[in-house]
Design brief:
- This protein is of the alpha/beta class.
- It contains 9 helices and 10 strands.
- Strand 4 and strand 5 form a beta hairpin.
- Helix 4 packs across helix 5 and helix 6 runs parallel beside helix 7.
Length: 256
């Protein structure tokens, strides 16, 4: 018991310290991020919001190791990735981060199963087929495993994209406007999948400009002009699996 009391706390999944990003456009400097500091812990469900030009896409690219910062520190699971080479960043992307994009980013000439399995091939992961099938099962799409993208609806394509992210067993999932190409009903269905994954323990960050989507998340960070405008703080406990936003609304209505 004494050892447990004094055991060091696990580091945040993401820790940003005074993060700054500056782009040069011709002779001008564009300050996309101006000193962002925050921590995101395991099993948080976070929305990052902001108007066009707020810096949210730049922040997402840095979090996903798709871009590098100009100044500051970015630690991913305790590892400082601020100054890593492109090769090492690519390795981290492939093994620790699962991406879900607005436009799905699926290969049209291969099946859903092969699309999910492909990133595992790049990282030479073991048991690739089994992991891909399990990921499709988690998004209720096993019956479409051998269908091509042109045989799938928009919502089914996004489920394949989520399964592809899950198959990597990532430290976190980054979803960039994941419902942007979907109607509102299908978008709500996709967010219910994220709700369930969060309830199972997954760490999820969603970039969105839609309030309805952000309300599924348990913590909302708003950016303006490259700075944190507001942060609702630490994540609340997860809802029961499958309850999603509707279940939370029912609980609120029943509260005294």
């Amino acid at each position: 018991m004494i050892a447990d009391v004094f055991a060091p706390a696990a580091p945040p999944v993401i820790e940003l310290i005074d993060l700054r990003k500056v782009y040069r456009v011709g002779t001008e400097l564009v300050y996309a991020l101006r000193g962002v500091s925050l921590a995101i812990h395991e099993n948080e469900y976070v929305a990052i919001m902001g108007q066009s030009g707020s810096g949210k896409s730049t922040l997402m690219n840095i979090l996903g190791c798709l871009d590098v910062l100009t100044e500051g520190t970015y630690r991913l699971r305790g590892q400082d990735v601020s100054k890593l080479s492109q090769t090492k960043l690519a390795r981290i992307r492939g093994r620790q981060i699962g991406f879900v994009f607005q436009s799905f980013e699926l290969l049209g000439r291969t099946t859903a199963l092969k699309n999910v399995e492909l990133p595992l091939t790049y990282t030479r992961a073991r048991h690739r087929r089994q992991r891909a099938l399990e990921a499709l099962r988690r998004v209720n799409l096993l019956d479409r495993a051998h269908h091509h993208p042109n045989q799938l609806s928009g919502g089914q394509k996004q489920r394949v994209a989520i399964a592809r992210a899950l198959a990597q067993q990532p430290a976190l999932i980054l979803a960039d406007e994941p419902t942007g190409n979907l109607d509102s009903v299908t978008g709500a269905e996709i967010m219910t999948i994220f709700d369930s994954l969060y309830a199972e323990g997954q760490t999820i960050i969603v970039v969105t400009h839609e309030d309805d989507i952000a309300r599924h998340c348990r913590r909302i960070i708003k950016l303006k002009d490259g700075q944190v405008l507001s942060d609702t703080g630490e994540s609340r406990p997860p809802p029961a699996a499958g309850t999603g936003a509707a279940g939370q609304a029912q609980e609120a209505a029943a509260a005294p």
